[in-house]
Design goal:
heterodimer; A: 539 residues; mainly alpha; 24 helices
Chain lengths: 539, 48
């Protein structure tokens, strides 16, 4: 166990630096465009680290690393998609057009981009609304994992850890907007990279080198528990049986769900609009590819190799050593195998991973509420009345009688504060079983609802609003239906199917293991194509 | 390869590393490419 005084001192220094970056963001934020898209002049290296650090949360390292300990190295295919789709396609195919169009139309958020491309306030509002409904779940998952992590490593009571964690992030997000978020992301990304490099090198050194460690992992294959073997598990250095339940879960939910879902993540898309030119995006690709390889590639490799370590040390598989809780495998491995100095670095890396993702989600939800939704509903009678009667909302703030300059991004700041409160409430209310699946769920929802309409907006000269609405509606509705009634990993804890039909899932195998994205994304694309054909035929 | 027998696994690692390398090479090759185009555009704008 690391000396809590040393860990506390290092964490305190880290928080001071983060707050200083938040202060820099605050000083540089003068206009709405600064708060929303960093005045479109962020440095490409900051963009790359910020994108990567936002993309990779603590759950991606600890949760998915633990999953690799359970299911094996086959998860490396998610790294392939993370780099191929999440970096190369995202930056080159989507990023360049997003930056160019976003800059031309002066779009400042993802919903704003869609709204302006389709010249539709409805598209902007509905996209903002889907974000506001879906993102708090994902945010709550990050929040809980961060608070649990602080609780376990620093021996701070859970409620205190959660509130303290939120307060620190909230201060710099609300005050400094996206500039503060991206500056702190860059620092956090750097810490994460150092942590993961040390983790990979140390693990192979501890286990006797690359070839020995991997060969030992292969030799553990006969020890796969019978329950897992019958579901298709063949060992930790080989792929599961093709078409088996474990294969379906690994490929459809984890590899495709998260791998493709990243393309339409609002908090990532907005980053393409923060740079001054396309050249900056190319520079970011230079950093982004290796960064992601070091994050998920290392997490999945080390995760699988923990089986070799625990077998040698305790005669147990990693999942058994962790008492069945796969989320504690990576922290347990670090604590028991690494020197104290590295434990501190890795703990800081995990804290950085949680903070970077959380701050970006807070900012995206805040701008969706305060900018995308508010500006489309504020003219409605009820909201006009509310605005007129709520003190300070539309008036300049004062300190000691002195009027502060009125910021045109005040509504986004208020929206951010409001959505932070919503996330805290959800973190306390939602069952853990749903929270644990929130990452894949949110990624799947975004891809199903937004991806076809987003791609159409970028690559069509005259994008069809009607086709985009059809795609968005079909994608979102199909995704929800499959999630609530078929995909048993979500439908069982949600309980809607059980309540209505008396069964956890209305379809049998293998459909129960097929991720909603695999069904809803093709249907969303088909809806877009059919609507475009009808549109053309009408003309 | 490196002690891993299943080609679906080492193949995955190989592709991941090649893609990360390709991303780095792409970034390097295009590091100044856009700058030249932008300078040309700026010059032509000034000429107009």
């Amino acid at each position: 166990m690391v000396d809590p005084v040393i860990l506390g001192a290092v964490t305190a220094v880290y928080i001071v630096v983060i707050m200083y970056l938040g202060y820099l963001g605050y000083k540089k934020t003068q206009e709405e465009e600064d708060f929303m898209v960093c005045g479109r002049k962020i440095h490409p290296v900051v963009l790359a680290f910020s994108y990567g650090a936002t993309f990779i949360s603590t759950s991606a390292i600890v949760g998915f690393g633990g999953m690799a300990a359970h299911l094996g190295m086959g998860l490396i295919w998610l790294t392939v998609l993370n780099i191929g789709v999440g970096i190369i396609i995202a930056f080159i195919i989507f990023g360049r057009r997003t930056r160019d169009i976003g800059c031309r139309l002066k779009a400042v958020t993802f919903p704003d981009l869609l709204g302006k491309c389709y010249r539709s306030g409805f598209m902007q509002s509905i996209t903002g609304l889907i974000i506001l409904v879906g993102m708090p779940l994902y945010t709550a998952a990050i929040l809980i994992s961060g608070a649990r992590f602080i609780e376990n490593t620093m021996a701070i009571q859970y409620d205190m850890a959660l509130i303290g964690f939120v307060l620190i992030v909230a201060v710099y997000v609300i005050a400094g907007g996206l500039i503060a978020v991206m500056y702190s992301d860059a620092l956090q990304g750097g810490i994460m990279m150092v942590g993961m490099v040390i983790l990979l090198v140390s693990t192979y050194l501890i286990l006797g080198g690359v070839e020995t460690a991997n060969a030992d992992l292969v030799s553990l294959s006969p020890l796969v528990p019978s329950g897992l073997a019958s579901a298709g598990h063949t060992g930790w250095a080989s792929m599961p049986e093709l078409g088996s339940p474990i294969w379906l879960n690994m490929i459809t939910t984890i590899v495709l769900g998260v791998g493709i879902g990243v393309l339409a993540q609002p908090q990532l898309v907005v980053r393409f609009m923060t740079v001054k030119d396309s050249r900056s995006l190319d520079k970011a690709v230079f950093v982004g590819g290796p960064f992601i390889l070091l994050m998920t590639g290392v997490a999945f490799t080390v995760g699988a190799l923990t089986n070799v370590y625990f077998m040698r040390e305790e005669g147990l598989l990693a999942t058994e050593a962790a008492g069945g809780n796969i989320d504690s495998i990576i922290p347990m491995f670090i604590n028991s195998s690494m020197p104290d100095a590295f434990v501190v670095v890795f703990m800081l890396a995990l804290l950085a991973a949680a903070m970077s993702t959380l701050s970006s989600l807070f900012h995206t939800m805040g701008t969706s509420a305060g900018y995308d939704l508010w500006r489309n509903v504020r003219h409605l009678r009820f909201f006009s009345f509310l605005e007129a009667n709520m003190s300070r909302l539309g008036r300049p703030l004062t300190i000691k009688g002195k009027e502060l300059p009125k910021k045109n991004y005040r509504a986004s700041q208020i929206g951010t504060g409001f959505m932070i409160l919503v996330s805290i409430v959800i973190a306390y209310l939602m069952p853990g079983s749903i929270i644990a699946r929130a990452t894949a769920m949110f990624f799947g929802l975004c891809a199903s609802a937004f991806l076809p309409a987003y791609a159409h907006a970028l690559y069509s000269r005259k994008p069809s609003t009607w086709a985009a609405k059809a795609s968005l509606a079909v994608g979102a509705v199909t995704w929800f239906t499959w999630t609530a009634f078929v995909h048993v990993a979500e439908s069982a804890p949600l309980g809607i199917s059980k309540f209505l039909f008396g069964e956890d899932a209305v379809l049998g195998m293998p459909w129960q293991n097929v991720d909603p994205l695999v069904i809803s994304l093709p249907l969303s694309i088909a809806a877009l194509a059919v609507a475009l054909l009808i549109d053309r035929w009408r003309r | 390869m490196f002690g891993i027998e299943d080609p679906q696994i080492w193949g995955g690692y190989l592709i991941a590393i090649v893609l990360a390398g390709a991303a780095a090479v792409y970034g390097l090759l295009n590091w100044n490419k856009g700058a030249a185009e932008e300078t040309d555009e700026e010059e032509s704008d000034q000429g107009d």
